[in-house]
C-alpha cells in the first residue's frame, strides 16, 4: 500500500520532482502572501483573529472570527472594540475601550474592559501598567463572522489532530502528480 | 529516475495518472528509440518562474521576521505585488507557451536540426487520450499530426503501459511527418 503511494514519486525524473516540490511550496507561499497582503492593506499585524473567550458576550462569542484594521490616522475612541497585546501574554485580547485620555500632541492612553467582565482590565495588564497606548493596539474590530473560528479553536485544543491533518494534506500534494 | 524501464503500473481508472504514464512512455520513445535529444528549456523556464515566486515569498517571510510589521511595510508591498504578478506570468506561460507540451526533442538530420514537440490532453471523465505531435524543421516550417485514442489502446488490463504499442504509434506518426517533408 505504502509502496504504491510513492510510485508516482519514484517514477518522476529530476525536473518533475523539483516541480512537485515547488508547486507544494507555491501553495504554502500563496497563503502566506495573501496573509501578508492583508497585513499591508489593513495596517494590522494580524488582520484576522479568533475570539477565544466569552468576555465580550453578547457582542462576540467564543469562536467568532474578527476582521481588524489598524490605520494610524484613525483615532481610538471610547466605546470602540480594540484588540491589544499585553507584555508577557502571547494571545491578544479583544475588549472595549472604557476610558481614554488624549493629549494635544496626539498621544493617547486608554483603559479597556470586557463587556461580560465585572471589572476593568487593569488586572490583566502587565505588572504596574495602568493604561494602554497606541503601540499596544493590534487593530480595531471592523466586522465578524460567527462560529467560523471554532475550527481553529478545536485545532489548537487537539494539536495532534492538527498536525495529522496538515501532514496528510502535505503528503497528498507532494505525492500526487498534477 | 533510473534508465531501467521496468513495467509501469498505474491505476488505470485515474485519468491523470494514465495520461502521465503514457506521456512518460512517449518521452521515452522520442529520447530512446528515435535517438532524439531532449531539450529542457521549456520546463526549465517554468521551474525558474516557480522558484522565483517561492523565493520572493521566503524573502518576505524572512524580512518580516527580522523587521516586524510596520517597518517591513514597503518590502511587503513589493514582495506581495511581485508574487501575484509572477503567478499571472506563470499562468500565461503554462497556457500560452507550454500548452501541455511534455517533451521537446531535437533531432539531427544531416546538418539540420528538427524539433519535435509532443503535447497531450485528456478531457474530464473521458477515456480519450489526445496527442498532438508538431515537427519543426530548420527552415521554420512546421507540420503536425495527432492521435485521438482511448486509454485502452495503450494500457492493458492490469494498468501497465504497453510500450510496444506506444512505440508503434509514435513511429507511425514520426514516419508520416518525416516523409511528408520529403515529398515537397
UniProtKB/TrEMBL annotation, chain A:
Q: Name the CDD domains on file.
A: S26_SPase_I
Its placement in the membrane is given as:
Single-pass type II membrane protein
Group of enzyme by EC: hydrolase
Principal localisation:
endoplasmic reticulum
Which PROSITE patterns would you find in this protein's record?
SPASE_I_1, SPASE_I_3
User: What chemistry does it catalyse, as a reaction equation?
Assistant: Cleavage of hydrophobic, N-terminal signal or leader sequences from secreted and periplasmic proteins
**Alphabetized UniProt keyword annotations:** Endoplasmic reticulum, Hydrolase, Membrane, Protease, Signal-anchor, Transmembrane, Transmembrane helix
Keyword Methyltransferase in the entry? The reply is no
Q: Which SUPFAM superfamilies match?
A: LexA/Signal peptidase
Q: Name one GO biological process term.
A: signal peptide processing
| InterPro entries found in the cross-reference section | LexA/Signal_pep-like_sf (IPR036286), Pept_S26A_signal_pept_1_CS (IPR019758), Pept_S26A_signal_pept_1_Ser-AS (IPR019756), Peptidase_S24_S26A/B/C (IPR015927), Peptidase_S26 (IPR019533), Peptidase_S26B (IPR001733)
The protein's location, in the record's own words, is: Endoplasmic reticulum membrane
The regions listed as transmembrane in this protein's record are 17-35
Q: Name one GO cellular component term.
A: signal peptidase complex
List GO molecular-function terms, semicolon-separated: serine-type endopeptidase activity; signal peptidase activity
Supply the EC number(s).
Answer: 3.4.21.89
NCBIfam families of this UniProt entry?
Answer: sigpep_I_arch
Protein family membership: Belongs to the peptidase S26B family.
Function, as annotated, reads:
Catalytic component of the signal peptidase complex (SPC) which catalyzes the cleavage of N-terminal signal sequences from nascent proteins as they are translocated into the lumen of the endoplasmic reticulum. Specifically cleaves N-terminal signal peptides that contain a hydrophobic alpha-helix (h-region) shorter than 18-20 amino acids.
Assembly, per entry: Component of the signal peptidase complex.
Protein name (record): Signal peptidase complex catalytic subunit SEC11
**Which species does the entry assign this protein to?**
Plutella xylostella (Diamondback moth)
UniProtKB/TrEMBL annotation, chain B:
Per UniProt, what is one GO molecular function of this protein? peptidase activity
Instruction: Spell out where the chain crosses the membrane.
Output: 47-68, 74-96
Q: Which InterPro entries match?
A: Spc2/SPCS2 (IPR009582)
Q: Name one Pfam family in it.
A: SPC25
Write down any Gene Ontology CC term: signal peptidase complex
Specify the protein's topology with respect to the membrane: Multi-pass membrane protein
**Keywords for this protein:** Endoplasmic reticulum, Membrane, Transmembrane, Transmembrane helix
Source superkingdom: Eukaryota
The biological processes this protein is annotated with in GO are:
protein targeting to ER; signal peptide processing
Which compartments is it annotated to reside in?
A: Endoplasmic reticulum membrane
Q: What does this protein do?
A: Component of the signal peptidase complex (SPC) which catalyzes the cleavage of N-terminal signal sequences from nascent proteins as they are translocated into the lumen of the endoplasmic reticulum. Enhances the enzymatic activity of SPC and facilitates the interactions between different components of the translocation site.
Q: In which family does this protein belong, per the annotation?
A: Belongs to the SPCS2 family.
Query: What protein name is recorded for this chain?
Result: Signal peptidase complex subunit 2
Q: Which organism is it from?
A: Diatraea saccharalis
